[in-house]
Model the fold of this input.
Amino acid sequence: MDGLKVAVTGSDDAAAREVADRLAELAAGAPVAVALVPAPEPGAHHLVVGVAVPEEDGTVDVRVSRSGEAVRELWEGRIAPFAGNLARRRRAPRRQQVVLTQPDPTWPAQAARLKARLARVLGERARRIDHIGSTSVPGMAAKDIIDLQVVVDDLATAVEAAALSHEAGFVHVAGPFYGIDRHGTHHDEQVAVDADPGRPVNVHVHPVSSPIWAEMLLLRDWLRADPAHRREYEAVKRELAARPGHDVNDYSLDKMPWISRALGRAQAWARRA
Done:
């Protein structure tokens, strides 16, 4: 069926089946398919619910106990709004003020699950899919938003890929959108975002001719390579986030002068590496 695909898995088969049955009852008549899946295939579902799954297991999106109250809270707080947003191609609500959070060691695993969903629907259209941005740099405080970058052949394919991301649980946002390279030049991109209220995501789709995608990977790798660079960037971000009345758009634009200078240093670093 079309709609939100939810997998329920867990080491306790009886508990997982009980949760799957309760969710299926709640989903009756809604655009949601719930399946009990002992070993979910990467990327095959929009949301994987774990029952009695260890914290270190990175294959699930959300953990829930078998209690009826917990299952209902999961349905009402996440699954039902996710399904409604996806059906209406509506982005999930998101705060407009910048809040930096402490590093979350699960960010890479979360990004890997999201990448698998995109890769499954985009196929050969995607030359590569990468986790970028501050959540891709271990040990760095960041907004709790996973940034993914998709590189495709051209802008027409970028439009197609952003629209197809709906099948992976995302919503294509009408632009125009652009990235700004280190020289201040604007380059068109396509953007998709989360329908899931429980996991903010930005998907940036760039044609391969754009320099933006390579610059984002270079900046990520440079920050990963040196804790001093991470501390410097984090100090800039904290200062900008603390400015009164500063929203997320102001924050993103005001970071660009530092990023442009940092990319020059990163290019020198890459040549020496």
About this structure: The domain at 4-88 is CATH 3.40.50 (Rossmann fold). The radius of gyration is 20 Å.
